[in-house]
Amino acid sequence: MTSTTHEVPKTVTIDAAAVVTTVTEVGRSVRPARGRRRLGLGKPIPFGRLLGVLLLIGIWSLVSATGLVDPRKLSEPWTVLQTGIDLIANGQLQDNIAASLHRAVLGFAFGVAVGTGLALISGLSRIGEALVDGPVQVKRAIPSLALIPLMILWLGIGETFKVAVIAIVVAIAMYIQTHAALTAIDSRYVELAEVLGLSRWNFIRKVVIPGAQPGFFLGLRLAVTASWLTLVVVESVNAVNGLGKMMFKAQDYGQSDVIMVGLVVYGLFGFVSDAAIRIIERRVLSWRRTLAG
């Protein structure tokens, strides 16, 4: 008689959190090779986004030099440059920039915090979505600048009113993009988390939040632009300083060169802030391979 030995199968323990983490990190470990062609578009052009700006300045200089535009309506680039130097020399430009930056940064910070918080409440809970998404969508249909009379009635015409309006505009931009990203997580990851019995907290931390990061950064870029656009308007309401106030005051005296200085500064702030967010986005989302690189 030959005895048959039956081996007891070993129990295999699956770490659900580790599996999901591995799945979500696979893409991050793959980085496009430096200089690799992307979808036939070729290598990125160093400082390529500046080319369009330089072209626009060249056209502006050309039409100014040939007299195609009345300098009283659109000052020449060299006149604007000299005016900017004069405003810096007397300290007027620095003071106005400091006041505008203070309002924009505060409004942007509050708006990002509120918009992202509301998006998390709405995107991660059915009850939260029922309570939050409807009012936000209604507010989205109402132009934020149309709220200015009501905000003045509530908050007066001081700094609080200006920061609040900027924060509202930023919050809506952040909410829309972040909420859309949260509710668009790939269903395969959801099914995998359910099969592995992943806890809700680990699912949110390891799947939902990383998956929503592209939408979050898109919201940041739209929000920072919206903050500068709104700043121009709110500074026209009983402001004692700021770039917007400087520009509207120059309008009363027909000083197109001062207005252009303000526009150039706004453009620089918008361009630099957007570029900074792009740099952070590329580093955080380096695992994504997109047309933008």
TrEMBL record:
Membrane topology: Multi-pass membrane protein
Membership in a protein family: Belongs to the binding-protein-dependent transport system permease family.
GO biological process, one term: alkanesulfonate transmembrane transport
Record localization: Cell membrane
Biological classification of the source: Bacteria, Bacillati, Actinomycetota, Actinomycetes, Frankiales
Keywords annotated in UniProt: Cell membrane, Membrane, Transmembrane, Transmembrane helix, Transport
GO cellular component: a single term: plasma membrane
Keyword Cell membrane belongs to the record: yes
Listed transmembrane segments: 47-69, 101-121, 141-157, 163-182, 215-238, 258-280
Primary location group: membrane
UniProt domain ABC transmembrane type-1: residue ranges: 97-277
UniProt entry tagged with the keyword Membrane: yes
Name of the molecule in the record: ABC transporter permease
InterPro entries: MetI-like (IPR000515), MetI-like_sf (IPR035906)
